[in-house]
Amino acid sequence: MTRRHGFRHGDWESAALRLDEIICAHSGEDAFEEALKLLVAKLAHERDGARAAFLARQRDDRAVCEVNRLLRAAGERWRGILEPGATTCLSGPELVRCASVLNRVRLLADDLVGLDAIFEFMVTRAAKGQKGQYFTPRHVIAEVVAMVKPTPGERVVDPACGSGGFLRHALLQEPRCSVWGFDQDPRALRVARVMLAASDQETARVMRVDSLRRPERRRRPKAAAVLEDLMRTQEPSFRGFDVVLTNPPFAGDVGSDYADAYELARGHRVERDVLFLERCVELLKPHGRLAIVLPHNKVGAEQWAYLRSWLLERVAVVAVLGLGRNTFRPHTSQKACVVIGSKRPKPTRHFRDEEILFFISERDGKDHRGRLAYAANGTAIDHDLVQATPLVRRRFELVQGGA
Ligand SMILES: C[S@@+](CC[C@H](N)C(=O)[O-])C[C@H]1O[C@@H](n2cnc3c(N)ncnc32)[C@H](O)[C@@H]1O
User: Fold this and answer.
1) Are 156 and 88 part of one and the same domain?
2) Is 317 a member of any domain?
3) What is the pLDDT of residues 183-208, one digit of tens each?
4) Same domain, 72 and 213
5) How far is ligand 1, taken at its centre, from the CA of residue 349, in Å?
6) Of 100, 126, 152, which residue is a domain's last?
7) Is the same domain home to 115 and 144?
8) Cα–Cα distances in Å, from 19 out to 13, 24, 74, 401?
9) Which of 121, 135, 182, 327 gets mutated to test ligand 1 (max ligand atoms within 8 A of its CB)?
10) Which of 135, 202, 307, 365 reaches 20 to 30 Å from 193, CA-CA?
């Protein structure tokens, strides 16, 4: 058997960097927007099953027409991912140069892992170094979704959905669940829509909002819409989600913006992940299931003991997965964990005897440079979270069976 060439994060990053350079150097157009249109055109080309390479042997003037034709086709096939009538602003020579970069990669291959890596580069770059935008590796997402296991008809949300990885995998594993994504970054949302469309999934339920903004008790007349408002415009009977899956931003001091609105922020200096934790619990229905990626210190450091007590009072934590240090490389080597549990119908202080599964991952599916590591058969990513899945499922059955 031919050993598969390990996916190198750097390969996709250098393709993304090259696109960015070509677009910025020659056109002065919005590099994110033009790169996104180009990627959509390439996706449409691959979806058509075209044998020839993208824009191969096209004269410069024909390249512009061909990209615009592909954009029209993509707009019809995948509604909502492009502005109506979107056309490329790049010139023929620029398109041909970009195509020579894109022809080295197949975007629809390998569960979109390469497309995801290019988008991650673009979103992080467009955010101009703002920290905490790193996407969760897809093998981690796939396993966490399998642990929480959405069922038909359940409402699933990611309130910081980024490129929509959790949404896409929830739908891949249970196409009959109803999936909702929210993010405040319009670029991340556009990426999420393209990723969902590329796997032929519904894109309309991905919306822009500051998910940390909470409903006010006494509503001011011109107050901005909050997540619950957006949900009720779609589903008037909305009362909460059955499943929350998320990797919220870790960094970013929240200043005084939310200090009064969040219990966990009162009297403490906190970052956004703490607020997201409180908000996720609030968004869940009683007995709803939660999986949230958090910085490692939240489960170990003395300073966060008050947060752990707060959480255990409200959530029956079934498992904590310690992710390996390579998980978010090459972007960061920060250690993170996934906290998984089920919301209690009412807070309780009687949780001391409850068992929690602690699983420390020793094979995180990447090497120290952040390249995906494949198992000996060359096809599957080499990670050990898969061993935790049946254990977490069993813990859920015990907790929810006893509910
Ligand atoms: C670490 S990324 C995670 C992305 C995604 N969960 C994934 O794993 O691919 C965090 C996302 O949270 C979004 N975000 C940050 N603050 C937010 C807020 N107040 N409301 C909604 N989204 C927010 C960022 O734009 C970013 O896309």
Assistant:
1) no
2) yes
3) 999 989 999 999 999 888 887 799 99
4) no
5) 31
6) 126
7) no
8) 10, 8, 20, 52
9) 135
10) 365
List the CATH number of the domain containing 343.
3.40.50.150
CA of 120 to the centre of ligand 1 (A): 12
Asked if residue 353 and residue 299 are part of one domain, the reply reads yes
At a CB cut-off of 8 Å and minimum separation 6, what does 307 contact?
264, 274, 277, 298
Question: Is 131 contained in some domain?
Answer: no
Q: Provide the domain count of the chain.
A: 2
Maximum average pLDDT range among 3-7, 128-132, 199-203, 373-377: 199-203
The token pair that represents 111 in the structure block: 């569960």
Would residue 204 count as lying in a domain?
A: yes
Higher pLDDT, 255 or 168: 168
| pLDDT higher than threshold 60 for residue 244 | yes
Model confidence band, residue 402 (pLDDT cutoffs 50, 70, 90) = low
**What's the Cα-to-Cα distance from 335 to each of 45, 82, 294, 296, 398, rounded to whole Å?**
39, 36, 9, 5, 29
Task: Residue 105: give the domain boundaries.
Answer: 9-126
Cα 158 to middle of ligand 1, angstroms: 9
**4 has a pLDDT exceeding 50:** no
| pLDDT tens for each residue of 335-352 | 999 999 999 999 999 888
Which of 247, 282, 283 has most ligand 1 atoms within 8 Å of its beta carbon, as the pocket-test mutant? 247
Task: Please list, residue by residue across 329-364, b when 16 or more beta carbons sit within 10 angstroms of its beta carbon and e when fewer do.
Answer: bbbbebebbbbbbbbbeeeeeebeeeebeebebebb
Residues 117 and 233 in one domain: no
**Residue 242 and residue 352 share a domain:** yes
Binding-site residues, ligand 1, Cβ < 6 A: 132-136, 158, 160-163, 165-166, 182-185, 188, 210-212, 246-249, 272
- 133 assigned to some structural domain: no
The pLDDT of 117-123, averaged and rounded, is: 82
pLDDT tens column, 34-74 = 999 999 999 999 998 877 899 987 787 899 999 999 999 99
pLDDT greater at residue 365 or residue 343: 343
Domain ends where: 104, 126, 148? 126
Ligand 1: which of 119, 161, 180, 278 to mutate, most ligand atoms within 8 Å of CB? 161
The residue behind tokens 């673009």 is 122
Beta-carbon contacts of 25 under 8 Å, excluding residues fewer than 6 positions away, are none
Q: Is 246 helix (H, G, I), strand (E, B) or coil?
A: strand
Alpha carbon nearest to ligand 1 atom 9, residue: 135
Q: Is residue 50 domain-shared with residue 101, that is, in the same domain?
A: yes
Residue of 158 and 24 predicted with greater confidence: 158
